[in-house]
Amino acid sequence: xxxxxxxxxxxxxxxxxxxxxxxxxxxxxxxxxxxxxxxxxxxxxxxxxxxxxxxxxxxxxxxxxxxxxxxxxxxxxxxxxxxxxxxxxxxxxxxxxxxxxxxxxxxxxxxxxxxxxxxxxxxxxxxxxxxxxxxxxxxxxxxxxxxxxxxxxxxxxxxxxxxxxxxxxxxxxxxxxxxxxxxxxxxxxxxxxxxxxxxxxxxxxxxxxxxxxxxxxxxxxxxxxxxxxxxxxxxxxxxxxxxxxxxxxxxxxxxxxxxxxxxxxxxxxxxxxxxxxxxxxxxxxxxxxxxxxxxxxxxxxxxxxxxxxxxx
Length: 312
Fold this sequence. Notes:
This protein is an alpha+beta fold and 312 residues long. It is 12% helix and 29% strand. It has an eight-stranded mixed beta sheet with strand order 20-13-14-17-16-19-12-21. A six-stranded antiparallel beta sheet has the order 7-6-9-4-1-11, with no helix packed on it. Strands 2-3-10-5-8 form a five-stranded antiparallel beta sheet. Strand 13 and strand 14 (221-225) form a beta hairpin. Mean pLDDT is 93; it is low at 1-6.
């Protein structure tokens, strides 16, 4: 990583509550107990890199809530911002998301508070400069791994961000770019083998009530509250957990397991959200109401292939 004082970049003048360097995450290491990590709204993250002509897995900044995160440029740079509207200001002037923009030397970029959505993605030319650990630069706080200094910590005041690229291909989002923060409708769920453990009435409640996103939500898991779901066994033999798995603990309130989830778990699972549904849920503020809809594994695969196809 190049992060010396002579290398000009972008300085963190004020740290927000949670600004993390993320990429597509770590794969093939869950048997070591290492979680996936990576951008929670992977669709917005990928569009941010696409706007600059970056490789799809280039490291970018995931900004949660805003919280007056303040970045100051030491040299002119073209950046791309996609995802939540965190009331970003460029030298006090409003900056709309989902586009490229110029940050000139001495200018400050401030993310204040959510207006729409929860997570914004800021892409840099060629991707942010950070150590690659187990094939990824993703920052996972719980495991103290990755990020700017490979300590798993969010950005702090005084940190300097540098990047790999120079010239960029500044693009505009095409009409086919459907972003999770603007996508209405229910979240798609593939029922799993343990769905048979749940009472018929609980399966009815799963798909016929509005669930509320609880404030107990982070990059590890998002709790949904509503009519409790009841299952036969209170626990099962621990097994591997995929992205979007919906565990149901004894209180009956489901937990959707996200990018920084544990690698194994022993609560019954009713199924798993699709990757696109996970991206949408990652943009939901506490108190947001969501609905679930069942789809088959084949339908989920087709949806995911179509989503990946928009970048071809």
